[in-house]
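User: I want to check something. If I give you two sequences, will you return the structure for each one separately, not as a complex?

Assistant: Yes, each is folded on its own. Here is the first sequence with its structure:
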Amino acid sequence: MSQNKEIETQLRIIHACEKGATGVYYGHRIIAKLFFRDMITTLDEMHRHETEHFYLFGNFLNQYKNSVVLPSLLWCIGGIFYGLLIGLFGRNAIWVSTASIENIVNKELEVASFFFKERNIKIYQAVLEIREDEISHQHIALEHADFNYPIAKMIAKFAQQCAYLAKFLAIHLKISLPSKKNSPLTD
């Protein structure tokens, strides 16, 4: 695989997951507005960060992409559905889910930082900055989450499975675009 393809794949993973995260926080925020109003400010801030990350990595991805992945709307809808479903299990479920997903995100961003350090310093620096937000989200969630209940353990496992499914889909669901040389639009 060429270096540009590897970079595109890494960016596609981060970009898709950030859009999914905007959906998750959107879903959590809907539930919080109905039942847990004291959570709204924190969830709003987390949602804002994820939206900024999505746009930042979208700009980087546009520099490399030779394929189209699932439209961003589908990632967001999946995230919203997940966020609503988990939110229905209550306040603790939202925090357990957030802590679990952010743990995985932080691991993935650590891998991405090593990958980009030698390949693209601008993306590397962006990953490091974004990782600060994600670590903050994880710490906030861990302060509130109680993992000592069976349902919390199930939610943590479900969050992990959903996060890795999103990564798998981001890697494998793409459509190659015609090269610009052979494109009917350039003739």
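And separately, the second sequence with its own structure:
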Amino acid sequence: MSGGIKEWPQDERPREKMLKQGAAGLTDAELLALILRSGDPTTGQSAIDLGRKLIGHFGSNLRELGSAEITEITAIKGMGLAKAAGVKAAFTLASRFQARKLESFDRFTSPQQVFDYFHHEFRDSRKEYFLALLLDGKNRIIRRVQISEGSLNQSIVHPREVFNPAVKESAAAMILVHNHPTGDPAPSGEDMAVTRRLREAGDIMGIKVLDHIVIGDGEYVSFVERGLL
């Protein structure tokens, strides 16, 4: 349909359609159009046209778009920094919502719970993140601490960086978590070495390392379940 969205019949405008039918009644392109808010005046494309272009470029399952960097989005004609930032913010917020829906658990009692808590956040990540979940004496989470960003190795995951916040929070134990951007959660030799080093440091400091969970694409490896810890 030619012309700007404001010239369309009201029942076909994304905003009016959502108010009338609910968000579930909109296509992915229409939802993206609401985030973009406007089209590209230089080409005459509407916001829905841009939404369709994004879907066509990154794939209809939206996972590629959700994990795309700002520079990749702005490489598409009509997608300036403001529009790209809006799209990135929307997907990041959705990811955080998915990760936080399990916060009602006041403690972690299984590796599966840890995986359920984090896999939406890390599923499409292109970087490797290493976290420590600080726990009290009843295994209730105190807070999460990001230790490193990038490939895991002993030089950047130093016991000092891991245990300093644990001491400050008077943590009794911790669970180590990191992701593999490849999607394969099988522990590497470096994963094994870092875990062994941190477990030994924890034993000395009286802060037990309960588990190390590696998150992949739809699956995980628990060092405890595998008998590696």
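Because they were folded independently, the notes below concern the second chain alone. The domain at 102-222 is CATH 3.40.140.10 (Cytidine Deaminase; domain 2). The CA atoms of residues 122 and 179 lie 7 Å apart.
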